[in-house]
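Notebook entry, structure prediction.
Reason for the run: the old model in the group folder had no record of what sequence produced it. Starting over properly, with the input documented here first.
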Amino acid sequence: MPEPTPDALRAAVARLARSRTPALTQHLFEAATNAQRARSLAPLRAFVHSWAVFVAIEGRPERAARLRELEQIVDAGEEDPAAVIAEIRAIREAAEAEAGL
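New structure, fully documented this time:
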């Protein structure tokens, strides 16, 4: 896992999912602006949390593929989403733990 800093997360995202780099940059700008307005580090902490989890998920292709599959199942709305949502939650919790969050 990369260090929980914007530069390290940006490098990891560029390596794992280059197409998501603009979204990371936009999120960072918004987080910095919101942090300044609110005089709080909470928006920057949320940025780090979000992208660290993303990197932890994308860093394991099988986990990333399963998450996308589960999200498609929920989006399709053809089955009871409770078990699917529980599995999504478990994937995200494992990624948070891996990221040290």
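Summary: The helical segments are 6-16, 21-38, 42-58, 61-76, 82-98.
The old model has been moved to the deprecated folder.
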